[in-house]
Amino acid sequence: MKLPNLTRLARAFWQSCVKLVDDGGVVIASNVALSLLLSIFPFLMLIASLVRLYGSPELAAQVVDLVLGHWPADSAKPIADQVAVLLQQSPTEFFSFSTLIVLVLATNGVENARDGLNRAYKVRETRSFVWRRIQAVGFVIGGALGLIAVAFVLVGAPIVWAFLESRAPLIGEFQLTFTLIQYGFAIGLLWLILLAFHKLLPDLKLQRKQMRWGILLTIVGILVGSKLFAIYLQTIANYTALYAGLAGMMTAIVYLYCLSVLILWGAEFNTAINELRAQEKAEEIS
Question: Which residues contact 68 (CB under 8 A, 6 or more apart)?
Answer without folding.
Answer: 76, 79, 80
